[in-house]
Amino acid sequence: MAESVKAHRRGVSIVELAIVTPLLLLLIFGVIEYAWLFLKASGISNAAREGARYAATAGVTDLGQLTAWNSPLMRALDNADIPLESATVTCATVTPGTGQPVTVQVTVPYEAVRLIGLLPGPANLHATVTMLKEGV
Questions:
Q1: Cα separation, 75 vs 87, whole angstroms
Q2: To the nearest whole percent, how much of the chain has pLDDT over 90?
Q3: Structure pTM?
């Protein structure tokens, strides 16, 4: 009789393990996926900030300078391992004039930076930064 109780307890433990393991794995992979999402969102935010800082300087007068491969914005995206071809950069205006607002927006589809893909995420990651243009 004692052996049947031990076998029963062992069977219950296996069933508990079978129920809890998928939930635990889902939780662990969810934490990893969303940590990755926040890491990439931080990189995109930093790139937008670098782009706005660069666009606010007196020498920048068009969007082409902002999106050139060697601009601070593109280097920040590259440093954050964001695929440059997937990033969309928009800038409201970069016309010269002291005190004019310059708004830079960077948008990246989440599919381009997704890590695991088991859990739902946003369609796009984006950041917007506005700074005032420096004088000439």
A1: 12
A2: 55
A3: 0.82
